[in-house]
Predict the structure of Esterase family protein.
Amino acid sequence: MTDSKYLKRTILKEQIESRFLNETRNLRVYLPPGYNEILSYPVVYCQDGEEFFNFGRIATTANYLILDGHADPFIIVGVDVDTSVRTDEYAPFGSRFDAYTRCFAEEIIPFIEAKYPVRREASERVLAGDSLGGSVSLHLAVRYPELFRRIISLSGAYYPASQDIFEAQDDLSWLDVYMIVGLQETAFETDHGTHNFVELNRQTRELLLDRGAKVEYAEKDGKHIWGFWQKELPNALTYFFRA
């Protein structure tokens, strides 16, 4: 018995020139086993693309799920980020937030859809992110509901500035969010203070539910690290792509 079939992954590198960010942004594209360009596939877009692939091992996880029949085939697009400006891009109070969200929705999505056979309905796109990547994914959905309706949030960093924006929404009944947070995340040190991520996620869940969103929510033993999130990715992905 060998695991070699699971480890044979097709991951392509792409680059996009962003007029909003005025720079080149690197992308990683995972193609599922049996990929056929005449077919069409749902797609997961990941913030922190490099970490999702390297630390989250999302491509290997996808191979297991698809080859073992637990999930229908899907494509994954990882959007890399420069960690030195990550908060500027992912937080709503960041100096590059508007430019990044416009780049994501108005440049990255059309680029991928022109080059790969991904489905173009909002119900066939999933945004995935950890920490601030989770919150910017939710912000993207609120800003572009015609594009994004399904979110994987791994210990989302839902600071008050984000909660205020979500609270201002009247109707989020179109939204479907998978949320997980670790019970040991009650005093996590960030680059702008120490936060209780469990409480922030509980509050955000209630904000979303009160506005009609569908929320699959869980709290489990875990810290604010990839060792926790990696183990939760199979459940998160099968929630949206169960075969």
